[in-house]
Amino acid sequence: MGIDFHDAANQRTYSGRTADPSWAQAVTQLVEPTSAAVVDIGCGGGTYTRAWSALGAASVVGVDFSAPILAAARASHRELSGGRFRRGDAARSGLPAGTADIVFERALIHHTPDLPAVAEEARRLLRPGGVLVIQDRTPDDVARPGSPTHPRGWFFDVFPHLLHIENARRPTCERVTEVLGAAGFADISTSSLWEVRRQDADREEYLAEIAQRTGRSILHHLTDPQLDHLVAELRHRLPEGPFLEQDRWTLWRAAQKVGPAAGGDE
Predict the structure, then answer these.
(1) What is the Cα 154 distance to its own chain's centre?
(2) What is the percentage of the chain residues whose pLDDT exceeds 70?
(3) Whose C-alpha in 12, 22, 84, 99 is 20 to 30 A from the C-alpha of 33?
(4) What pLDDT digit, counting tens, does each position of 114-158 carry?
């Protein structure tokens, strides 16, 4: 069974992290956030909504379809400057057309049943010359082997059926590029990012997150006994002391064509 984003038990599964400088360095090579109007679709707990504000965005709107997760985001980011959160669907956000300089979608598209509709909505939201940035994993990213700095790769060593689930829900780099082109985006490019997820003080701090399935939807496909087994395997493979946890991602950058703003309901 996959994660239920509407279950209050998962309210804080995407809260409590701070975006690493490795992420900020990567996205500022793609877009200029200073004074930009940013829409963070699939914002989850608001980690990256806050990060865009810290990078100098004039306004940031975090959009998510989960009421419990949005409640956690609002509670965690009450001091967010120029930012707000609203409930909406990735394919129908309810925001005005042609008002965003940047639309950001992190760890979103592998959860969406209709990728073309999500691309069309992003295009609708952007001003002429605005930029869509997608951050997600492809099957190639998922296939990276496990290591002390990339323990996620070990999930699939221990439970190979998780790899089949991941590959079934992760679109290829070529598929995403094709969909963006069909939606009318221009200047589509891709790049890779090893993003630092967090610096864990020790092995047990990391394993406590794994045991709660925090921020890792793939682990909701394991039973409780299977999860206990994974924790035991990871404890055996990881160093005892501090370690740096990294995740491999693909970034897509796609520009709204310069011309009349995209139409659609406001």
Answers:
(1) 21
(2) 89
(3) 12
(4) 999 999 999 999 999 999 999 999 999 999 999 999 999 999 999
Name the packing angle between helices 115-125 and 173-182 (round to 10°).
50
Over 90: is that where the pLDDT of 31 sits? yes
Report the C-alpha gap between 27 and 94 in whole angstroms: 25
Tokens of 119: 């691309």
Q: When comparing pLDDT for 97 and 81, which is higher?
A: 97
Give the three-class secondary structure for 144.
coil
Burial of 46 (0-12, 13-18, 19+ CB in 10 A): buried
Please calculate the CA angle 261-35-196 and round it to the nearest 5 degrees: 105
Q: Are 15 and 46 in contact (CB under 8 A)?
A: yes
Average pLDDT of the residues in 1-9? 60
Q: How far apart are CA 212 and CA 209, in angstroms?
A: 5
State which amino acid sits at residue 62. G
In tens, the pLDDT along 96-106 reads 999 999 999 99
Dihedral angle sign, alpha carbons of residues 157, 159, 162, 167: positive
Which has the closest alpha carbon to 66: 134, 2, 8? 8
- Given the structure tokens 């400057």, which residue do they identify? 81
Distances (CA, A) of 197 to 15, 23, 51, 134, 193: 13, 9, 14, 17, 11
Strands (E), the chain: 37-41, 59-64, 83-87, 100-106, 126-136, 186-200, 243-255
For CA atoms 70, 74, 80, 85, the dihedral sign is positive
Digit-coded pLDDT (tens) for 155-214? 999 999 999 999 999 999 999 999 999 999 999 999 999 999 988 889 999 999 999 998
